[in-house]
TrEMBL record:
Signal peptide from the UniProt entry: 1-21
Protein name: Immunoglobin superfamily, member 21a
Pfam families: V-set
Keywords: Disulfide bond, Glycoprotein, Membrane, Repeat, Signal
Domain Ig-like: start-end pairs: 25-135, 348-438
Phylogenetic lineage: Eukaryota, Metazoa, Chordata, Craniata, Vertebrata
Gene3D superfamilies documented for this protein: Immunoglobulins
UniProt keyword Cell cycle present: no
UniProt entry tagged with the keyword Calcium: no
Length: 478
């Protein structure tokens, strides 16, 4: 073999080895998934898995990824070999529908459907049918849920009325069911309130004080010794608080008209008397509002938002003020709103049962609404009701009792004519209603010396006895 032939032979062998080391073509496969916009609970979502390949399709599998990607839950499979599809979500009752080989529709999505999804596509290797080539794509499904409930309550109520010292007042707005967390803000009389954000420590959440950063104390800034002495000077000689004005169901006195409560021993009181009391301090007309909020994640993926609005209460200005809590959320076309009107109690309306109590009966005196306002009207914040007996203790020996109902068991005759006071108070004011207990079935009798009780007859009109004697004479004559 000549040198030229030898070189050609070596070149030929090299080319053969080179081609024998290159693997046979397996085909190409690319998978892409269109991104999804956020959806609202109850809507229908379509998951589209787009793939390109020159190979033969084996299967398409959709996975739900949980626990940060550590768990992949198979939810739907399309088997190209047998041209069949089936769902793996038995608890969902076959919620998935196959639109096309690679497209799945999820009707009425829930918050639990929120999260990443993966589409896995497999094709046969062009060299052998036993080998499958895989490619995948992923998409994140964001499910939003609008708040389904909002409410406003007063913190730490029912609470007593503070006569001589200003106090903090806090409204708590709670929005439930939202995902993501909604935005919450307060309005007063329809206008947005300018607030100062503050942080609240865990130890202060049960009380009425707020941990304000860089702010003055809320309570003491408008109360000095001069105003306190002026307030104390309004006490009567016995140390009791006089009533500023009195109103009854028949007539209403104007505010500012003073009427002192007479002594129980000499007073002449109608069946029901209502009296109202105002605070004794002077306060700023330009309060500072402090705002805080807390997000509480729930097990279903939603977030409970609690927003607090705290300020130093001024009953003269805040009474009848309308406060509203508004909630904004991307799943809502317009804000949700709930509102409350701050109001001092206006005299409890009392109902006594039975209406004609007899000796030995059990008497119930119940609060049924208020003297002023429409039937069934509500007072916000919820009042604290306290019962006392004028000039003595209650039947059970206690000085007072809380609640909407006072129960007097087996009333004795000695309680006839006794007067009871029901005090309704909340942070905006205090008001009293007096009612008298009349016990029927007692008769005034006079006992003679022979121990025979003879009931005293009523006073007879003049001439009654003479006419009766004449009638007897006529009968005897006949």
């Amino acid at each position: 073999m000549s040198p030229v032939q030898a070189k050609c032979f070596l070149l030929y062998m090299t080319v053969i080895q080179l081609f024998s080391s290159v693997p046979p073509p397996t085909g190409y496969l690319t998978v892409t998934i269109e991104p999804l916009p956020p959806v609202v609970v109850g809507e229908t979502v379509t998951l589209k898995c787009n793939f390109k390949t020159d190979g033969r399709l084996r299967e398409i599998v959709w996975y739900r990824v949980t626990d940060g990607g550590t768990i992949k839950q198979k939810i739907f499979t399309y088997d190209a070999m047998f041209n069949t599809n089936y769902s793996h979500m038995e608890d969902y009752r076959r919620r998935e529908d196959l639109v096309y080989q690679s497209t799945v529709r999820l009707p009425e999505v829930r918050i639990s459907d929120n999260g990443p999804y993966e589409c896995h596509v497999g094709i046969y290797d062009r060299a052998t049918r036993e080998k499958v080539v895989l490619a995948s794509g992923n998409v994140f499904l964001t499910v939003m849920s609008p708040p389904n409930n909002i409410s406003v309550v007063a913190e730490n109520t029912p609470a007593a009325f503070s006569r001589y010292q200003a106090q903090n007042f806090t409204l708590v707005c709670t929005a439930k069911g939202g995902k993501p967390a909604p935005s919450v803000y307060f309005k007063r009389d329809g206008e947005l309130i300018e607030v100062i954000s503050y942080t609240q420590s865990s130890g202060e959440q049960g009380g009425g004080s707020a941990g304000v950063r860089g702010a003055r104390p809320l309570i003491s800034r408008d109360l000095d010794d001069t105003k306190l002495q002026r307030s104390l000077s309004l006490l009567d000689p016995e140390g009791r608080v006089p009533r500023l004005y009195t109103e009854s169901p028949q007539r209403v006195h104007t505010q500012g008209q003073q009427s002192y409560e007479p002594s129980p021993a000499t007073e002449v009181i109608p069946e029901t008397v209502v009296s109202r009391e105002f605070p004794r301090w002077v306060h700023s007309t330009d309060p500072l509002y402090y705002f805080s909020h807390t997000n509480i994640p729930q097990s279903d993926g939603s977030v409970v938002v609690q927003a607090r609005l705290t300020w130093t209460l001024n009953p003269q200005l805040d009474n009848d003020a309308l406060f509203s809590c508004e909630v904004k959320h991307p799943a809502l076309s317009m804000p949700m709103q709930t509102e409350v009107t701050l109001a001092a109690p206006k005299g409890p309306k009392l109902f006594m049962s039975p209406t004609r109590a007899k000796v030995g009966d059990t008497v119930r005196i119940t609060v049924q609404g208020f003297q002023v306002g429409s039937p069934g009207n509500e007072v916000f914040p919820e009042p604290l009701f306290t019962w006392t007996r004028v000039g003595g203790r209650l039947l059970d020996g206690s000085a007072e009792r809380d609640g909407k109902e006072l129960i007097l068991e087996r009333v004795p005759a000695e309680l006839n004519g006794s007067m009871y006071r029901c005090t309704a108070q909340n942070p905006l004011g205090s008001t009293d209603t007096h009612t008298r207990l009349i016990v029927f079935g007692t008769r005034a009798c006079v006992c003679v010396c022979v121990c025979v009780c003879v009931c005293v007859p009523p006073v007879l009109p003049a001439g009654y006895r003479t006419s009766r004697l004449n009638l007897k004479k006529k009968k005897n004559h006949i």
